[in-house]
Amino acid sequence: MRLDRIRRSVQHGRPQPTGSTLVGYAALIEGLDAEARPPETPAVVLDRRIKAPVGESHICRDGFAQYGSHIAVPDTFSDHLTFALKHERLDLLALKRIFLAVPEPIMADHVRAAPTSGPRRRAWFLYEFLTGRRLDLPSANNGAYVDAIDPDFWQTGLPVNSPRHRVRDNLPGNAGFCPLIERRAAFETPLSEMSERILGAHLAGADRELGRRLVRRLLLKDSRSSFLIEGENPSNVDIQRWSDHISRAGEAPLSLDRMIGVQRDLLRSNRFIVPGLRRDGVFLGDRVDNMPSPFWIGARPEDLSDLINALIRADERLEGSEVDPVSHAAAVSFGWVFIHPLEDGNGRTHRYLMQHVLARRGVRPGGLTVPVAKAIWEDIQGYRDVLAQHDQPLMPLMDWRPTGNGNVEVLNDTADLYRYFDATEQALFLRGCVERVLNHTIPSEIDEVRRRDAYIAAAREVIDMPERQLDLFASVVMNNGGEMSKAKRNKIFQQMTDEEVSSLVSLVREVFSPPSDDSAEYRP
């Protein structure tokens, strides 16, 4: 099947370089009119030779991957597909849309032309995996087994042989849900071992009570942060209830019933929300003159059951793999929030899933819940950026209209947008959160506890005062720039002498100044 040579095009608002031919994914998408977004860096072959960096076959310039004229790509479907799978970053979403756009006999001819070729058998496997169609071809009898995806570049699932194609299926998910994550997002050392070692070093010489207090403090702070991310100011009851859920995350395998139970308890006081998979559309964004202005739209209601069941099966596969636990958590939790399966509570259940995966994968050092939500809240703009990085490029692929009740209705089939995505940036963000927790948050919290204990012990030498009031005194002083305000002195601490107040203020400054890096506020 021949494709027209594309010499002049605009890709992502950038004009194609003069004297070049579009190749690979971009050429296939344009030539087949496939409903897919071209690669972020489309490939072109120049009419001249180039001098590429050592070890590279191309140069990146003006938003294009530019190959020299020594790379020959004839104007056929087969040659462009071979180029894409050999030279370009694997894009399962684009690949599926390309496969759906090409006639089945053309794809069969691609395989039939070289049935023992590893790259052609790999393309054959990916075609049948993604489309669910079975090409009119006999099973392969010859040729060494090849990997479905490059294990040196991607994190992979445990390989399962596909005898029909003689391909090792090492994809990290299934045809219904399969995010990809680069290997560079993984920790070099197993996270469960590393986190235990780091926590042990921080707690060296401490008694067990300090460890128990640390677990409680971080759990409550993480729970509060999850509400703050949503712009809510939770009550102590809300925080305690949510912390109970987080502490039990991972006790049982992931299931939809479990997630709905978490949502139901989270929203128990909201009588306007129906728990479970939503029955209407959902969007994130603004309203202008009561008209929706979305920056992301969740999956269609009719697709939710299949998508979530596929996500749960992918979680099972990832749990038995060597995929890094944080990357696993990113794939499942961000996949969930992209789908947005619930009427409300998607954000907090998304972060609950992070804790679920980390717990299932053994990342609970000393019984401690890694306070990921706290780290996210401290880098809330980075969190928003990594969500937008995924959302913005896909919105043009959604055909939608506003409904009469201020919602949106999606008019085209968008399920694949939630099935196949690159979660590398989300995994890197989450890895950064975990690194900050291990290297900054935990030692900072331990320092706070020890400072507070030292303050209480020294304060008792000055005045016989309940611990609760001593904590309040320190909080008032530290939150007022190291001074006791006259108003609060007269209102709250009127029973103290001036000498006692002066001594305690000096003690607070000595113990808590400069404040720990985590915050300038005193928090017992």
TrEMBL record:
Stored Gene3D superfamilies: Fido-like domain
Matching InterPro entries: Fido, Fido-like_dom_sf, Fido_containing
UniProt-annotated catalytic positions: 340
GO MF, one annotated term: ATP binding
Positions bound to ATP: 344-351
Signal peptide: none
Keyword line: ATP-binding, Nucleotide-binding
Keyword field contains Nucleotide-binding: yes
Domain Fido: residue ranges: 254-403
SUPFAM superfamilies registered for this protein in UniProt: Fic-like
Source organism superkingdom: Bacteria
Protein name, as recorded: Fic/DOC family protein
Species the sequence originates in: Rhodovulum bhavnagarense
